[in-house]
Specification:
Layout lengths: L1 H4 L7 E4 L16 E5 L5 H10 L4 E6 L4 H10 L3 E4 L4 H11 L4 H15 L3 E5 L3 H11 L5 E5 L2 H8 L6 E4 L8 H10 L8 E5 L4 H9 L2 E6 L4 H51 L8 H31 L8 E4 H11 L1 H6 L3 E6 L5 E4 L1 H17 L6 E8 L3 E8 L20 H4 L7 H11 L4 E6 L3 E9 L5
Parallel strand pairs: 1-2, 2-3, 3-4, 5-6, 5-7, 7-8, 8-9, 11-13
Antiparallel strand pairs: 10-12, 13-14, 14-16, 15-16
């Protein structure tokens, strides 16, 4: 070991054959690294030393690198467990990685990284309690919100209703493999984009490739180097959080720009309507046709602006549902009246049928109007010419039921719920213009009313959307 410490740059490293030798070492406060040889019988003394010298990086060198000893080392505050005799490559790597860093600056940088990821939610799934305890001890200094599951089926159930920032998954588990759990995560609504790290004793290339194909960012082999794994997890969480922050910033910027567009678009719409109404003199039919096309485009732009603003407001909790007793029949009739000219341009007839005496219920008039208007305009846009749109209002003991069915292009989708995700659009298939926010916002509004909404479609035949509103006056 003395030969290793004579290497250039090793003057900041101290090595002792046992923890008691440290009593005679001077200048510890100026050292970067302390390597203690141990058989782990003196683990309590090592823990006390680490506690007193928290700024000093401590490694334990041993002939017995077992899982239990790695856990004990981490609990007592040691950063790493290495094999004894210590190899020259390990010392060289440490010197190389620390040669251009000041001790205090390095500590400050690490602290900042920990601070950035504090409070993030991490799922740990492993059927071996020793492994979960090791990971918990290893990650507790990050200030993470850790959820541990010894049974992967329990973790699979939680995935459906709780969002995680990272999942650490074992592969070989009795009731469900880590691979199967990863597939469930990828299909879930909340965690389809959650980063995954597989931690496994399986070290063959085939399993590693399978792990990466399932979306794993990192594949860690057991037994692992605690210091390296901590650094990997910290770096991944930091990168994911930075990406999330950048997305939020761009989303906010988009909302600001869209808000500034709202006024000019409405002014343009009003001016076009005045021209079409001959407010400034008569215009010929060709001029009317051109102005009407421009007005249609302006109204589409207005809808786009409103949808983007509503998406931002809903996702940031800035829209509050204002429920009052309103006539649902009056609302539906008014919405159909508003779109009758757009329907007549394509020779589409809107038929309304009321199969219930239920009318006055408790809902937000403006928000539900937004939903119905969006469903009607979609139905007109994607219907065949010379067809009909059927609007039906029915009810049962618990809900008022609204349905709208049109006959036209339809949508082919494996999962009907996908249509309600934001920015999901089938504009390419239907050769139309659509950003994919209308149904997403509609679902947010219906959900805020404690209702449900579903979508049915058969390509080149029909599309049907049904939503419910509860009759109970639940505030």
């Amino acid at each position: 070991m003395k030969n290793l410490l004579s290497l250039p740059g090793a003057q900041d490293i101290v090595f002792v054959n046992n923890v008691k030798e440290l009593e005679n070492v001077k200048g510890l406060e100026d050292k970067r690294l302390c390597i203690i040889k141990t058989d782990f019988k003196d683990i309590n003394d090592i823990k006390n030393f680490c506690s007193v010298n928290s700024d000093l990086e401590v490694w334990l060198a041993t002939k017995d690198i077992s899982r239990q000893n790695v856990l004990n080392a981490n609990i007592c505050g040691a950063k790493n467990v290495i094999e004894y005799p210590v190899r020259k490559e390990i010392i060289n790597d440490f010197i190389k990685n620390n040669s251009f860093k000041e001790k205090n600056n390095n500590k400050h940088s690490v602290d900042n990284k920990y601070e950035n990821i504090k409070g993030l939610k991490v799922m740990i799934v492993d059927d071996n309690p020793f492994n979960t305890d090791l990971l918990k001890e290893m990650l507790k200094s990050f200030g993470l919100n850790l959820s541990v599951y010894l049974k992967p089926k329990e973790a699979a159930a939680v995935i459906e209703h709780e969002k995680f920032d990272l999942a650490l998954l074992d592969i070989m588990m009795p009731e469900m493999s880590g691979y199967e759990l990863a597939e469930i995560m990828q299909k879930s609504k909340l965690n389809h984009d959650t980063p995954i790290i597989f931690i496994s004793a399986l070290s063959d290339a085939e399993n590693k490739i399978k792990g990466f194909n399932l979306g794993s960012y990192i594949y860690i082999e057991k037994p692992f180097n605690v210091k390296v794994v901590k650094s990997q997890i910290c770096s991944l969480l930091n990168a994911c959080k930075e990406n999330s922050n950048r997305f939020k910033e761009s989303d906010t910027y988009l909302a600001m720009i869209t808000h500034d567009m709202k006024g000019p678009v409405q002014a343009e719409k009003s001016a076009l309507k005045m021209l079409l109404n001959n407010s400034f003199g008569d215009i010929n039919e060709n001029q009317k046709e051109i102005l009407q096309n421009v007005l249609n485009s302006t109204e589409y732009l207005e809808d786009l602006v409103v949808n983007i603003l509503n998406k931002y407001k809903y996702e940031n909790g800035k829209i509050k549902i204002n429920k009052q007793f309103n006539s649902f029949k009056k609302l539906v009739t008014g919405c159909c009246e508003q779109v009758k000219y757009s329907a007549s341009e394509r020779n589409i007839v809107i038929k309304i049928s009321y199969e219930t005496k239920i009318d006055t219920i408790y809902f937000d008039y403006n928000e539900i109007k937004r939903v119905i208007h969006n469903l009607l305009t979609n139905a007109i846009k994607y219907s065949f010419k010379n067809s009909e749109i059927v609007v039906n209002i029915s009810g049962n003991k618990k809900n008022l039921i609204f349905s709208i069915k049109n006959f036209g292009f339809g949508v082919k989708t494996q999962n009907s719920e996908d249509i309600f995700e934001k920015f999901v659009s089938y504009a390419k298939e239907t050769k139309s213009i659509n950003i994919g926010l209308g149904l997403y916002i509609s679902k947010q509004i219906i959900s805020a009313h404690n209702g449900t909404i579903k979508f049915e479609s058969i390509p080149d035949k029909f599309t049907k959307v049904i939503f419910t509103l509860p009759l109970k006056n639940d505030k």
